[in-house]
């Protein structure tokens, strides 16, 4: 059992991209599925597939690499709010990652979204991670 399943998710993606793997498998949860959808919509991963089985299911993520340099698209993926120290931001205090080049994923009362969308919808929430 993990004390922080989101940190485990981010670590698996980080390690697989650094090792040059094409696909990474992660145990599924609803929060992880939403984070995966955001990473796909923002262009950080190539594709994803949710596989259901009798227990909990898995998420298969196809990682994305630069065509010329073979470098992973995800340069850094960093957990911000941890179980021991939660980080919250109001709509006017939403973080900007690399001056707008990266994204911050936020868990709000309206669902999981990027910080940019949370600012547009005028909602605050828990800052889960930064991706760039």
From TrEMBL:
<dbReference type="GO" id="GO:0006412">
    <property type="term" value="P:translation"/>
</dbReference>
<keyword id="KW-0694">RNA-binding</keyword>
<keyword id="KW-0687">Ribonucleoprotein</keyword>
<dbReference type="InterPro" id="IPR000630">
    <property type="entry name" value="Ribosomal_uS8"/>
</dbReference>
<dbReference type="GO" id="GO:1990904">
    <property type="term" value="C:ribonucleoprotein complex"/>
</dbReference>
<keyword id="KW-0699">rRNA-binding</keyword>
<dbReference type="Pfam" id="PF00410">
    <property type="entry name" value="Ribosomal_S8"/>
</dbReference>
<comment type="similarity">
    <text>Belongs to the universal ribosomal protein uS8 family.</text>
</comment>
<comment type="subunit">
    <text>Part of the 30S ribosomal subunit. Contacts proteins S5 and S12.</text>
</comment>
<comment type="function">
    <text>One of the primary rRNA binding proteins, it binds directly to 16S rRNA central domain where it helps coordinate assembly of the platform of the 30S subunit.</text>
</comment>
<protein>
    <recommendedName>
        <fullName>Small ribosomal subunit protein uS8</fullName>
    </recommendedName>
</protein>
<dbReference type="GO" id="GO:0019843">
    <property type="term" value="F:rRNA binding"/>
</dbReference>
<dbReference type="InterPro" id="IPR035987">
    <property type="entry name" value="Ribosomal_uS8_sf"/>
</dbReference>
<dbReference type="GO" id="GO:0005737">
    <property type="term" value="C:cytoplasm"/>
</dbReference>
<dbReference type="GO" id="GO:0005840">
    <property type="term" value="C:ribosome"/>
</dbReference>
<keyword id="KW-0689">Ribosomal protein</keyword>
<dbReference type="GO" id="GO:0003735">
    <property type="term" value="F:structural constituent of ribosome"/>
</dbReference>
<dbReference type="InterPro" id="IPR047863">
    <property type="entry name" value="Ribosomal_uS8_CS"/>
</dbReference>
């Amino acid at each position: 059992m993990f004390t922080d399943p989101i940190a485990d998710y981010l670590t698996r993606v980080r390690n697989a991209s650094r090792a040059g793997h094409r696909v990474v498998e992660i145990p599924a949860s609803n929060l992880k599925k939403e984070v995966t959808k955001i990473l796909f919509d923002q262009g950080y991963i190539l594709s994803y597939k949710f596989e259901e089985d009798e227990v909990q299911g898995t998420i298969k993520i196809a990682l994305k690499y630069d065509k010329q340099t073979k470098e992973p698209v995800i340069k850094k993926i960093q957990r911000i709010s941890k179980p021991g120290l939660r980080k919250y931001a109001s709509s006017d205090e939403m973080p900007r990652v690399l001056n707008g080049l990266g994204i911050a994923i936020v868990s709000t009362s309206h669902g999981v979204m990027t910080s940019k969308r949370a600012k547009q919808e005028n909602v605050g929430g828990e800052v889960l991670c930064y991706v760039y």
